[in-house]
Amino acid sequence: MTPISPANPLTSQGAQALLAMLPARVEVKRGMSERELDHVEGRWEFRFAPEHRMLLAAGLPVGSSWPDWRDGEPEDLAERLAWPVDGVLFDVEHNGFWHPDWEPRPTASREALEMARTYLADVPVMVPIHSHRYLLGDPDRIGTPVLSMYQTDIIYYGTDLVDYFRHEFGGPVRTPEDHQHAAIPFWSYFLD
Predict the structure, then answer these.
(1) How many other CB atoms are found less than 10 A from the CB of residue 106?
(2) What is the pLDDT of residues 103-159, one digit of tens each?
(3) Is 113 left (phi over 0), alpha (psi -120 to 50) or beta?
(4) Integer Cα distance of 89 and 114 in angstroms
(5) 3-class DSSP state for residue 97?
């Protein structure tokens, strides 16, 4: 399968092929309807990337590592959505992290944390796919990388959703020369 792009969006058949890569122990429930997807976006105030939306329409993987967008506990979904920002805040508070584009760091830890929280309120939303793997929540961008996010230890885990599934679930991987990553505002800082 070629990289996801505006000229090559993920199709329903492509999404089914990705779901077929999942191990037998992963339950895949009926895909989500447009109405259900719209409800999730409205409830949680983000938008799925087009390829993520297509995947969830084809089938909804569920289990402890998967966000259950249909029947999941609200607290679990809230924690998963907050994970990327909470991880940065943890490193601000406990490990001295400070983004170079922010104003100078206040000396008081509490003030630094509040200032960081203000900056982080405006960063792009990262939406959980599986475990601590995230995809940019932007309905206008196709083919952004999947990131593995653990505090400020953030790495590429796939050039796009297809590449991620291949890496995570054992499909054929692209050659290194195919690995071009689209930039994600704010979050790409951690990848350079």
Answers:
(1) 14
(2) 999 999 999 999 999 999 999 999 999 999 999 999 999 999 999 999 999 999 999
(3) alpha
(4) 9
(5) coil
Structure tokens at 171: 């499909």
Sequence-distant (≥ 6) Cβ neighbours of residue 63 within 8 angstroms = 25, 26, 27
Cα first-last separation, the chain: 27
Q: Which CATH architecture has domain 12-191?
A: 3-Layer(aba) Sandwich (3.40)
- Reported in sequence order, the residue ranges of 89-159 that DSSP labels E, i.e. its strands, are 126-130, 133-136, 146-150, 153-158
User: What does DSSP assign to residue 179?
Assistant: -
Q: Which residue has the tokens 């206040």?
A: 106
What pTM, to 2 d.p., does this model score? 0.93
All structural domains of the chain with their residue ranges? 12-191
- Integer CA distances (angstroms), 153 to 52, 95, 184, in order: 23, 12, 15
- Beta strand 60-62 pairing with 27-29: antiparallel
